[in-house]
Inverse folding.
């Protein structure tokens, strides 16, 4: 490595050390953020076409993720790196997710929810760092909570409109009643976050963990879509079978009308008339059998 390259690297490291932690995370995750926005699940939201299946699987995943995150934050509430950004009253999402899951699955929702494998890996990682590197929780809390306070509000409105939900039912997750001004709260959160004292090694670890947080979220989004794509052909097959059966019934009606020499306009008559025709045919067949 040349002397000039060493100077540039040292300058970059000094700049990173001098910049705010929140800005450093934002810069480090820029590419990952774009990738997350371009997943199929997020594109469905952008188009305003999120389906009930997508949203329900997302809720299942978010429940497992926030259960692991908030348990880890609660256990490490007094940790020097966690204490400044610990806002359980304002930010905790677990209870809201429980209400939403109960809305869609009923009181026995715990026995009915489906959790993608990528979600379990995400939750496992959160529990690991809660035990070994509590300072890394800052990256995950920042990524999730501030994302929910920002774009999450838009996603909530899209979900409500797409699924025809009323009075906030099923979308409690997107509501933060204890946060009167999301923009002001985000400023406070970033300020608290930037006040955290970290060694250079810890800071680099937090930045790497922030990138990992985005990657884990992307994996969850992709896993949800993969699960739905596997289930969709079965649904399509059932729909094709229903359409085929309906078409066969119409064809049988036409043949029945032709056999009885009923004028063709009657073949598309009201269901009651078709039922009467069916009864007549059944009686005719029955009489023929008894005649023998």
């Amino acid at each position: 490595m040349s002397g000039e390259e060493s100077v540039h690297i040292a300058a970059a490291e000094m700049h990173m050390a001098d910049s705010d932690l929140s800005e450093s995370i934002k810069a480090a995750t820029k590419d990952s953020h774009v990738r997350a926005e371009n997943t199929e699940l997020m594109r469905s939201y952008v188009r305003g076409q999120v389906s009930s299946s997508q949203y329900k699987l997302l809720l299942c995943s978010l429940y497992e993720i926030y259960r692991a995150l908030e348990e880890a934050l609660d256990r490490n509430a007094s940790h020097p790196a966690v204490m400044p950004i610990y806002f359980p009253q304002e930010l905790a999402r677990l209870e809201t997710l429980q209400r939403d899951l109960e809305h869609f699955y009923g009181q026995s929702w715990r026995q009915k929810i489906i959790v993608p494998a990528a979600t379990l890996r995400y939750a496992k990682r959160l529990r690991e760092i809660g035990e070994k590197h509590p300072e890394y929780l800052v990256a995950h809390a920042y990524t999730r909570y501030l994302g929910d306070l920002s774009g999450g509000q838009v996603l909530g409105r899209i979900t409500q409109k797409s699924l025809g939900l009323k009075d906030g039912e099923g979308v409690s997750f997107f509501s933060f009643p204890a946060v009167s001004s999301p923009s002001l709260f985000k400023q406070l959160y970033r300020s608290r976050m930037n006040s955290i004292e970290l060694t250079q090694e810890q800071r680099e670890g937090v930045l790497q963990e922030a990138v990992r947080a985005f990657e884990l979220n992307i994996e969850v989004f992709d896993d949800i879509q993969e699960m739905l794509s596997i289930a969709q052909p079965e649904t399509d097959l059932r729909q094709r079978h229903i359409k085929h059966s309906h078409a066969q019934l119409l064809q049988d009606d036409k043949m029945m009308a032709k056999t009885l020499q009923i004028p063709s306009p009657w073949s598309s008559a009201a269901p009651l008339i078709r039922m009467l025709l069916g009864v007549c045919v059944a009686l005719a067949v029955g009489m023929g059998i008894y005649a023998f």
Notes: The two ends are 105 Å apart (CA to CA). Confidence is low (pLDDT under 50) at residues 2-17, 234-246, 262-270, 272-292. The longest helix spans residues 200-259.
